[in-house]
User: Fold these one by one.
Assistant:
Number 1:
Amino acid sequence: MSNAASHTLSGSVAAFGAGAPGVVGVSDGAASLPWRAGIGLKPQHFRDVLATRPDIGFFEVHAENYMVDGGPFHHYLGRIREHYPLSLHGVGLSIGGEGALDESHLDRLAALVRRYEPASFSEHLAWSSHGGTFFNDLLPVPYDRPTLDRVCRHIDRVQERLRRRMLLENPSTYVEFESSTLSETQFLREVLQRTGCGLLLDVNNVYVSCTNHGRDALACLHELPLASVGEVHLAGFARDQDAAGAPLLIDSHGSPVDDAVWGLYAQVIDRLGPVPTLLERDNDVPALSTLLAEAGRAEDMLTAHAERRRCGTCWGGS
């Protein structure tokens, strides 16, 4: 591993999993991600990464882009993996779907995990397939007991098959179900308690969803099971309006992180201390140097908090 991979900030990652029940036969892969900032690894940056070896904590890739046996993506990822920790992020398991999980998809995912031994695997609280039809979107679920039971069964199966603890990402949503009997935070708490999975806290998703539904983002953040956070995502959003003229935010991953999201992230660090943090950019992807600069802002915040903790001036605690 390079210095970029081995350099970690001080802190206690065990605090992120406190209170979550153990999962028999499942390892806690999330614990080995460095408490630094990382970025999504994009094909247009493969050569630059290998040529410059940037001082970055880790890279993240979408699992479904690598579910083939060979080709240039694997060629470059294999070389980059030699020098950096890897976070594997799924977008196609359809954890919230009504049907059973696609076992062939799960087999391909398990093979990918064996091949690259990522430090973390995560998926979304969403559904993206139904009755053999696949959708290019992450769709919301009702927060009710039947859905809760189904999501827990699916997560149990994923963790059993992969033999590791997964992280579940809180969603960005634009509609809500009248049939919901639980809040999103209540739903997530019960899922984590029953399955022992961790939380991938997407701070941008918190801000987007709360804005769209007229809720207070900071209050929602404090209601989430923050003790189980294993990784944080930061991303940009697009602004729009709904049919009534109210603000509508779209989780676009196509712009820099908004100042409001940076403010919420500061609250997370004050509460938890340093935590692995990914800067996401999936649309209008800029030059590698631009992504590294934005990740540097998160890295500076993590480092500053670690310094305050060492100096005994951190009031938040984990």
Number 2:
Amino acid sequence: MNTTRILVMSSLLFAAMSGSAFAHVTLVNGTAKPESYTVVQLQVPHGCAGKPTNEVRVTLPEGFYGAKPQPKAGWELEIIKGDYAKPYDNHGTKVSSGPVEIRWKNGNLPDDNYDVFAIQGKIAGVADGASLAFKTIQVCGDATERWDEVAAPGIDPHSLKDPAPLLKIAGEKPADEMDHSAMGHGAMNHDAMGQAAATDAAAPAMKPVKLGALSLSAGYLKAMLPGQPVGGGYVTIANGGAEADRLVSASTPRSGTVELHEMSMNGDVMVMRPLANGIEIPAGAAVELKPGGLHLMFMKVKTPFAKGDTVPVTFVFEKAGTVEVEMPVAAAGPAGHQHN
């Protein structure tokens, strides 16, 4: 009888908490230092009036630039680029444009669950004590929840009905501004993705593997930083046969899942989406999985890939069958530079 009372009281307390402290989209990390690299993590605690969340849109504030979102299994990713209100000085390089909005699309987050959506970026030109608003929109089918209200000076943000998640800038400026380690982004180095040749040169050689008419070569994975859950991989697959084949899946014991992804540009919008139907390997042709295009996305990585490691990856083809490949891990950025 006592146990029943405790459970009922706990349930009521949780319900009260859910209806207040956890009702809004908030940030896991509510503060960041001035002029620092940081990871903004948005908590989405519920859907829209009971409906599952299918899309999350985040408008990036001025003072936060060079954004790089973390991919999520089962979601498409869009990065909308535009001009900044003012240019930023990135270690002597003028940066006047970049990501201004991030969208995770075509996913399914049930109302009974919560999830975290992460974006890395640099804080610049924001005074100590100021706050940055990451205005967020949840899309749940034909319903939406907008978290975009910003309190005027002197107004308590807690009084707002739909407050935007706020990142407060507080603390001392980092002593070493050249520490780029917080900007590590697994496979999602959008600045370096066009520099595939430089990255390939930094990668150790993978032993080519034959599977019937197919051959796999020049494969490698990107090194990751501690705590990173997402990594990227690349390989060239040549088909010397008379029939087309298809890469339908990949897996490794080092990660929870491996997705086949495609990245492309549509005007100023960078789109990354999973390929549910796999990747076709035409007869007599080679398909290169490389930064900025087709690639492997390793989700829920148990131990981050480290430079010098080899990782067993199993490839499954529609016709040729299954083959395991030992893929070496290359440096996280071009020529070993840890700036991705």
